[in-house]
Write the structure tokens for this entry.
Amino acid sequence: MNILNCRVDDRLVHGCVATMWVPKLHVERVLCIDDESADNPMLKNALRMATPNGVFLSVLTHEKAVENLKADRYQNQAVMIVAKSPKTFLTLVDNGIPVPSLTLGNLGNIDKTADSVVISRYITVNDEEAAALEQLHEKGVRLEAKLQPADDAIADFYQVMKDKRKS
């Protein structure tokens, strides 16, 4: 399996992912890991409609995603994994699925909580997400923030997050 990109995005598959990331990376399959969407036919259909023609889409629960990735179900495909939370990618890493880098797209702007801290115009991180990102960093996952492929990345996202959460 060729995982081209792992992305945290509150909206999973939407315009930016479908029209910029998928073509730029030559993605053949988008793997959305989200229990709510996997169990809701209407959400699943909306994600299918947002996925470009000719690109496969899998909308899976966390458990099924781990099972499929461990079984190398997508072995000959160029895959982009998208989830709403960094905790999802921590689950993958904890189950032996390699996640060398994680791109943070849209995070936390929909469900802000009292403990949320604005990191950039499109990323707000609460305590739970910050803890997951710290664990991912400690496990060797490179964290970057990048909304669109052509954007300059916040390359050392972990340090930026730490600094902003201290303020």
